[in-house]
Amino acid sequence: MNFEFSQDQELLREQARGFLDENCSLSDVRKILEGSESYDSGLWSKIADLGWLSTVIPEEHGGLGLTYYELSVIAEELGRAIAPVPFSSSVYLAAEALMLAGSSSQQQKWLPKLAIGEAIGTFALAEGAGRPTPKSLTTTASNSSISGTKIAVPDGDIADFAIVVAKCDGGDGASVYLAELADVARRKVSVIDPTRSHAQLQFDSSKAELMGSEGTGWSLTSQLMDRAAVMFAWEQVGGSASALDQAKEYAMGRYAFGRPIAGFQAIKHKLANAYVKNTLARSNCYFGAWALAGNEAELPLAAATARVSSTQAYYFASKENIQTHGGMGFTWEFDCQMYYRRAKLLSVALGSELWWQDRLISAYERSNQPITA
Amino acid sequence: MDFNDSPQEAEFRAEAVSWLEQNVPSRQELQGLDEIQRCKLWQKRKYDAGWACIRWPKEYGGRDATAIQSVIWNQEESKHSVPTGIFGIGQGMAAPTMMSWASEDQKRFHLPPLASGEHIWCQLFSEPSAGSDLAAVRTRAVRDGNDWVINGQKIWTSGAHYSNYGILVVRTDPDVPKHKGLTYFFLDMKSPGVEIRPIKQISGGANFNEVFFNDVRIPDEQRLGAVGQGWQVSLTTLMNERAAIGGGGGVGFDRVFRLAQEVTIDDRPAIENAQVRSALANWYCQESGLQYTGYRSLTALSRGETPGPENSIGKYVGASKTQDMASFAMDLLEMSGALQDPQSAFAGGMYPGTYMGSPGLRIAGGSDEIMLNILAERVLGMPQDIRPDKGVPFSEIPTGSNN
Asked: Which of A217, A298, A325, A328 could form a disulfide with A174 if both were Cys (CB 3.0 to 4.6 A apart)?
């Protein structure tokens, strides 16, 4: 049995944590929360210098060609630090979509730029309230151009291009396009977590290149979501562990009735339950990382499992972190809000808990394998 | 990452697999034997071939196996339907305590018959007024010459009625603080004055007992640890307890998933219902999370490390999951869900049976609340509760009307 990160990967974790402690403290995150910047561009360029953006991009496209285990380690640490950078859009979604379905010229054009942070990419699916389906899509495509409105596109205000899901009359009902955003009308929109900026994109016969074949867009979207879900889950687990640390630290130092509130079972049991949820979620993330790294048939099941349990763990830890802080946790001045904001943003950004629960059972129905080893 | 054995582990597994294939008792061999006889037959067969209690030293009946070998053996043995139920407390809890605290002669005398299944042991710890607060035991031991004379009552003693020996923690000094007045013994369960009465559980079964001590004499040689050191000795036993209590029973994700495929809601398979899918997904996440947490612990063992405390969440999560899934499965069965009638109940009444049995899982071997305290204190490093009885002589500690 060898179900752990390697020594080298743990070393990478140490370096990543040290770097982020120094360059991405909660007060650094707060600057983005309270300021008008869309992201921390200084941190972003340092992250690019460290090579993190290029972790899984093949060497032929200027990447490091490492595995999803290394990317998992980085994702967890970025989540722990609530890093205000477009990492998830550019790395887990845009680069991943290019590697999954990009033509060789699309890959040659964009992957080297994504690898060094010279370009930022994103993924645009949502068009309104409710769960998107091919039927619900209103963005249309014709003659290498697309028209339609995409809402709540993460990093849509700063991205150079977007991977856009558009309606298609044939095939599985959708096609995926790569659209450069320089000439696209876009409006920055406020979201629950201002440390991750979002925009509404208005495509109006905007130039776009098909990715993959026409009418395969929904299947491609689903594969992309599975792959990104594992990395989102690692970020969620990292954030959740950090929120629990913060709650515990506060409870140890906060006195009531003549003793630290950490000694009261109402608090101990709350935080022990957060620990239990975090541990289960983390172990499911290992399962997800294993499935992604080996491109295993279990990936859809593993991704959904990691995603559902991490979403639940982060929600629980971040809300109970506020609760443990009492009234102070509800103040703007305290940092508890940052975990609570990020938890919900990550939870809806790639599809809700309900959606992923459904995907989990669908994956199990397809494989129909008992999970006993 | 992978799920593969190292070459040495693979070799050991192959050896275990091949021995099991040739030696697991056939249905005919077990026919006509009661559960205890079946367990003893299988245990003796393992012992004779060197596959009993393999983690123990050879001189005590074991095989000197490593921790990971022991896990591999358990994995392979559990793939067969073999009778093992009755030895858990003796081999899993009494034996490690004996290894740490008994004399060399006692170990050589008592451990091999534990390994061979000749002797069954039980654990006499809990009392009507001492459960989670175990150090509050009141059963008294008074020195008389070379013997101790025991009077009092123990409770929840699994298997007392068929055990040869028992491990026992009693109060030898009520006038010092409670943890300091305890002493630990082992005794012959056939000693005069030991009276055993079965306790009927809410599930209808009677797996455990009340045990009364009326002037029972135990020789001083059967004391483990010093007089007054009983709490410390008990901790050796308790540390091994949670590993011995399983989370489960037969109601797991896959079974309820299949049930949801089989039964209908509004004439459609229940599995198509969003609420059903959502609930099942959550249980899958728990089951999978526990499984992969187990794999991480195995990896630590495989690397020669001690697994972290994260594995202690298994009983806590598993017990409630079992209870909730049984309850949910009965809901899926709608108005037939409550049936336990052997002729008409679905799946032989397994779901109501588990529903009635599962409350015990959440209490045995450390209640949910105690498990959370342990996680909070030992893993997260949070402070212990304030204890009004701390430093107070046991005889002056207040008691309530339910004690």
From this structure: A217
